[in-house]
Structure formats: structure tokens, C-alpha cells
DNA sequence: TCCATCCGGTGACGTTCGTCATGACCGGAC
DNA sequence: GTCCGGTCATGACGAACGTCACCGGATGGA
């Protein structure tokens, strides 16, 4: 029996995935959590062989949770299950020691087989996505540039961003200008879109 | 037996929902589609009692598909299943004749019961969400303002938007200015965020 | 040690943006 | 028939933005 921990914030999807895996005779779901910061405690209690982690979760994102989980329960392999095949996500997942990286776009039949293969010690990554991740290059943004650009997504004006981050407006403009040029955009809105798209806005992903 | 059509673009989620509903003895999935424009043809062939439709789908969005389905197969009730509880979405779903509106955030146990209740002729809508939809008021944007603001999400400069929509730059600025004020924002980025959030950017949602 | 890079800040410059006034055309409502 | 709203357009104005040059300091690798 392969013991599986399931971490997914959307209740309907979590329950449905549990039902899907419940059909497999050699898979046993030993824990279900809805928040990233519940992953490690649940894993310590349930001792799963494989943890299936969504990335977008409240409390703690799945990638950071994966890093903590690898440290706390090294025997537990990690499979990331996400909507977005962003190169930066895959790159970070590999750095963090994940064994698998699955897209929710993939056919449902791949889920069980991916869990079995990772439980057996294999790496499971979509080849096309791996190529994309390598060809993209790594995150060119400095930590501060990333932070300022990320803040610009929810804040309307440079003054707002400066206030939020306790910086001068001039400094914010400089960081934004740097980010815009590194990313190849023409203004901060386009820069934020591009960076978001490549998975460069998630925290802790330096160049 | 309740005959159900399942429309969801993400393969993993679609398969998982099918497994979840497969556990119910009185529910039979008679069709599965991954695109909005496959909904009506599949319904004509399979004659479901209930159609479970995601909103975000390629080809045709779930709300438009719902409208076409109500016209083509009036006997088939529609349940919308979506990630986002945007007031504009719910409002449009009701206008289009949907019987149910479910969030993927809800517990998995609600899915089967919602299908049973709609099959029996009831309306199934989260009460809190219904209140939010009513208190929001309807979409204040004119069709042109909506179109311009939606275009500003993916286009960087006003010149780009003007070129895309074959308008003068001045006209684009005027429409954006109108949208910004109606929505209560300080620039087009914030306006787009707010409008998106309320479900006002989807096509065919006039005030 | 030097050098590059990041960080924070300032000031100046030209461009883009958001606003407003104004005008014209068209449609439907009263 | 008149009014009103939406659409398209122009021109002008001030504010916000993006870029650049420049500064000092910290840090870390060559």
C-alpha cells in the first residue's frame, strides 16, 4: 500500500481527487489538508510515502511547504500538482527536492501512475515542460525588484508601493525600471504579467 | 438514475469529479467534455438531466454554453461549477437560466446533493453569495468601456489598444477614463483588477 | 585588493497617462 | 421633436510614469 497525503485547498477538487485515488487498490489516502501550513504537521502524524501538493494554497504555498516537508520527513516523496505549468514553478520544485510535477490539465489516468512511479523512486516530469523550464533561463529579477513588482500588482500608484515597502518613491521607480527592462516589457503592468506568467513573482525565487 | 453531463477543461479535475460522482448509485455520467463548444452537441446526443459546467473553458465560456444549452435542450438543468464566486458570474448564470451555482471551494459532499436537488427542480445557490451578488449592483460599464478595459489587461500601451480595436488613441483614453471613474479606481490597472474581481470583464454582461 | 552587484536615495528629463471641454453622429425614450 | 446616452474624435493640461546619471554603502567573488 502506498500511503498518500493530499494537500489541496479547493474542497470540491480535494474530495474528487480523493475519490479518484480511492479507486486504486494499492493507494491509501492517510491525510487530507486544505492549507500549506498543515502539510508538515499532518505528515509527521500520518507518515505518508508520497505527498501530493497543490501550489496555490492559503497559509503557505505548496513549494515552500514541500521544502519544509523534505526537511521534516525525508522519507516522504513530493509530487507537485498545479494548474499552471510555469517554468519558474517547475524549477523551484526541482530545487526543493520534489520527485514529480503534474499539471491538472493532464489526463486523470496519469495521477495514479505518477504516484506509483515516484513511490518507486522515479522522477515524473512532463518532458515538454522540462524543456520549456530550461530554455526560459532562471529568474533575472533581484529579490527587491521581485518584491516591488509583486506589490505593483495590487497597489495602484508608486506612492502606494513606496508606503507599503517603506521606500522612497524614487527607489521604487528605479527598481520597477530595472524589472521592466530585465523582463523586456514597456511598463510595470506588462512586466508584472510576464513575470507572473513565468512564475517569477513567487517569493524566494532569486536569480 | 440522474443522467449527468460533465464539462470541465482540466483533465485531472474532470476525471476526479467523474470518480466522485461515480460513487453515487443514483447518478450516471453520460457525457464528458473539455470544451465549451462541445457542450451542446454532447447534450443533444446524450440527453442528460443535469449539465455540470465549469465557467473557464476553451472554445466557449461556461455561461454562454449554458445559454445555448438551455435553448437547445430545455429539459436539461444547468449547474455552474466555478472557482470564482464573482457576483457578475452568479448574476449572469441566473439570467441565463442556470438552476445551480457551486463553488469549487465548497465541500465535495455538496456536489451530489446539489445535483439531486436541481434534478428535482430546486434552485441551489450559496445564500451568502446571492446576497453579495445583489448588493454589488449590476455592471456599470458600457459595452465599449468593458471591451477597452478588457483589452488593456493584455495590451501594454494605449496605442496598442487603439490599434487592436481600430480606434483613435484619444477615444481609448476617454473610454478608459470613463471606466476608471465608474469603477472607482485611480488608473486602468486598478480598474481592470476591480472589474475582473466582480466579473464585469466577461463578454455580454452589460449594465 | 579590486570589481561587480545589489541596495537605497536624489534630481532631472521626456513620455505616457488620466482628465476635461468640446463637438458630431446616432439611437431610443419621453 | 426634444432630450439623453453611447460612440468617436480632437486638443490641451497637469500629474504620474519610466529612464538616466549620479551618489554612498554593503557584500561577495575573483
Describe this structure in words.
2 copies of one chain form a homodimer. Chain A has 207 residues and is an alpha/beta fold. In chain A, 52% of the residues lie in helices and 14% in strands. Chain A has 10 helices and 6 strands, in the order E-H-E-H-E-H-E-H-E-H-E-H-H-H-H-H. Chain A has helices spanning 11-22, 39-46, 62-72, 87-95, 109-119, 127-136, 143-154, 158-165, 169-183, 188-198, and strands at residues 2-7, 27-33, 50-54, 77-82, 100-103, 124-125. Chain A has a 6-stranded parallel β-sheet with strand order 2-1-3-4-5-6, sandwiched between helices. In chain A, helix 5 (109-119) links the parallel strand 5 and strand 6. The longest helix of chain A is centred in the last third of the chain and has 15 residues, at 169-183. The first copy, chain A, is elongated, with a radius of gyration of 19 Å. Chain A binds chain B through residues 9-20, 22-23, 81, 83, 102-111, 154, 156-157, 185-187, 189-190, 193, and chain B through 9-20, 22-23, 81, 83, 102-111, 154, 156-157, 185-187, 189-190, 193. Chain A binds a DNA duplex (30 and 30 nucleotides) through residues 142-145, 157-159, 167-168, 170-171, 173-177, 180-181, 186-188.
